[in-house]
């Protein structure tokens, strides 16, 4: 994928950078992000919306990978930004991301977070529930502000990979249910709040979705609901946000569509189902996260020990694991890997890749075919750009890896590797524990 290839030395090269050189320069484990690939993906979304002729915003869902350099890149590519916490918001603001293009999500925004976002003059709050609606109105009134909002609704469609289910009533912690009337009541309530300006609705149906039907069904449900509030409450919407969830290929057998196919399916469905509800079709927003950065990321590890259990399995351990990639342990996610320093050698053995945490569940890949693996080899795990660094932990007090952006043969550090000092930076030992007895 992207700009990676195997070079003359038989090494994996990404963005023109030899991974062995990246190891020498930055150490391992190392997250490597193919910058051009991220940029291309942003452009694919924007180009696809341009083709549709609709008004649009493409918001990068920063939860997938939120660091200042990524926020800068997203801004350069004309993206908006979806944040879900003060930490993501702070990262974006520190990076100089234009506040008016930031959307604030989440099902439990604290009063402090709401204030921070209001003071920063962000573009829009995606209001999740009634408690938040009242809280936001109160804080906005106190500050004498008008605040743009979307209401998050659950359209009764759940999608994951190939399956999408249409459920009458959605059991979800997020949003107002369209099916049981709570969304209708929320629109009525929101429209009557003096300091809130209701722009429209937000719907997110799931993640790592390969098919368009779930999105089309969500558009239809949201459109029907829009018609009903227009007729019943005389409220109209100028924005419909359809969330993220567009799938990527992690392993052979994953069959995502091209970005343009998802966007076309959505915009076509909008043209069909929203026709005639209001004089103008709504502006369409989407929030891709995984599909912007997922397959642009590679994690580079150094192989350490191994354990061969004859007739059973060979474990090969790397210098990272569930601390930098918790997805296999959490979701049984599958990944592909290759030996980055001997990328052109034939496959010779089947091994399982273990992490270095004190936990049996710390496995990265079960059964991957590689050349004969030796201590000191470089293992590259592909498609680790999304929900890896952003979900990394310090379990076992393991330091978080560095992150580099590679492009045109240059590797730029965008996150420094944590130091041992970082590990104890927030520790405090109360004086009484130090008392000599
Ligand atoms: N918008 C909303 C409201 C979301 O909840 C999400 C993801 C997105 C956008 C972006 O979805 P994407 O395009 O990245 O699929 N940690 C999990 C994924 C959780 C996704 C949560 N919401 C994983 O590692 O697979």
UniProtKB/TrEMBL annotation:
Domain spans labelled Orn/DAP/Arg decarboxylase 2 N-terminal: 36-293
Assembly: Homodimer.
Protein name (Swiss-Prot/TrEMBL): Diaminopimelate decarboxylase
Cofactor entry: pyridoxal 5'-phosphate
Active site: 358
E.C. designation(s): 4.1.1.20
GO molecular function: diaminopimelate decarboxylase activity; pyridoxal phosphate binding
Family membership: Belongs to the Orn/Lys/Arg decarboxylase class-II family. LysA subfamily.
Enzyme class: lyase
Positions with a binding annotation for substrate: 290, 327, 331, 359, 387
Pathway involvement of the protein, from the record: Amino-acid biosynthesis; L-lysine biosynthesis via DAP pathway; L-lysine from DL-2,6-diaminopimelate: step 1/1
Keyword Magnesium: no
Catalytic activity, as annotated: meso-2,6-diaminopimelate + H(+) = L-lysine + CO2
One GO BP annotation of this record: lysine biosynthetic process via diaminopimelate
Role summary: Specifically catalyzes the decarboxylation of meso-diaminopimelate (meso-DAP) to L-lysine.
A Pfam family of this chain: Orn_Arg_deC_N
UniProt keyword annotations, A-Z: Amino-acid biosynthesis, Decarboxylase, Lyase, Lysine biosynthesis, Pyridoxal phosphate
Binding-site list for pyridoxal 5'-phosphate: 245, 287-290, 387
Modified-residue entries (N6-(pyridoxal phosphate)lysine), positions: 63
Source organism: Paenibacillus uliginis N3/975
């Amino acid at each position: 994928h992207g700009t990676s290839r195997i070079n003359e030395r038989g090494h994996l090269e990404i963005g023109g950078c030899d991974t062995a050189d990246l190891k020498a320069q930055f150490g391992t484990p190392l997250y490597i992000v193919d910058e051009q690939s991220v940029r291309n993906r942003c452009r694919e979304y924007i180009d696809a919306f341009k083709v549709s002729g609709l008004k649009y915003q493409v918001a990068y869902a920063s939860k997938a990978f939120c660091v200042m350099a990524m926020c800068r890149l997203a801004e350069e590519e004309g993206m908006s930004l979806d944040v879900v916490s003060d930490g993501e918001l702070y990262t974006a603001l520190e990076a100089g991301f234009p506040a008016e293009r930031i959307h604030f999500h989440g099902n439990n925004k604290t009063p402090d977070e709401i204030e921070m976002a209001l003071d920063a003059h962000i573009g829009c709050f995606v209001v999740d529930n009634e408690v938040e609606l009242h809280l936001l109105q109160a804080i906005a009134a106190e500050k004498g502000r008008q605040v743009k909002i979307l209401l998050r609704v659950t359209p009764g469609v759940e999608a994951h990979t190939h399956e999408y289910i249409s459920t009458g009533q959605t059991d979800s912690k997020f949003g107002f249910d369209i099916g049981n009337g709570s969304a209708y009541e929320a629109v009525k309530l929101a429209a009557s709040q003096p300091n809130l300006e209701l722009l429209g609705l937000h719907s997110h149906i799931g993640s790592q979705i390969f098919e368009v039907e779930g999105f089309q069904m969500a558009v239809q449900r949201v459109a029907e609901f829009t018609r009903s509030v227009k007729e019943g409450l005389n409220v109209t919407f100028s924005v419909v946000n359809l969330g993220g969830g567009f799938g990527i290929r992690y392993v052979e057998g994953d069959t995502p569509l091209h970005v343009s196919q998802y966007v076309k399916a959505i915009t076509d469905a909008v043209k069909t189902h929203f026709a005639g509800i209001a004089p103008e079709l709504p502006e369409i927003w989407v929030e891709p996260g995984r599909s912007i950065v997922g397959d642009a990321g590679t994690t580079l590890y150094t192989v350490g020990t191994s354990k061969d259990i004859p007739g059973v399995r060979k474990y090969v351990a790397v210098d990272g694991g569930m601390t930098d990639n918790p997805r296999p342990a959490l979701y049984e996610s599958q990944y592909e890997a290759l030996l980055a320093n001997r990328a052109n050698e034939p496959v010779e053995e089947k091994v399982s890749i273990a992490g270095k945490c004190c936990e049996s569940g710390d496995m990265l890949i079960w059964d991957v075919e590689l050349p004969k693996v030796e201590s000191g080899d470089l293992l590259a795990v592909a498609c680790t750009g999304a929900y890896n660094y952003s979900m990394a932990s310090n379990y076992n007090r393991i330091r978080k890896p560095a992150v580099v952006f590679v492009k045109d043969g240059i590797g730029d550090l965008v996150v420094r590797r944590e130091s041992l000092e970082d590990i104890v930076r927030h520790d405090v030992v109360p004086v009484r524990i130090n008392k000599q007895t």
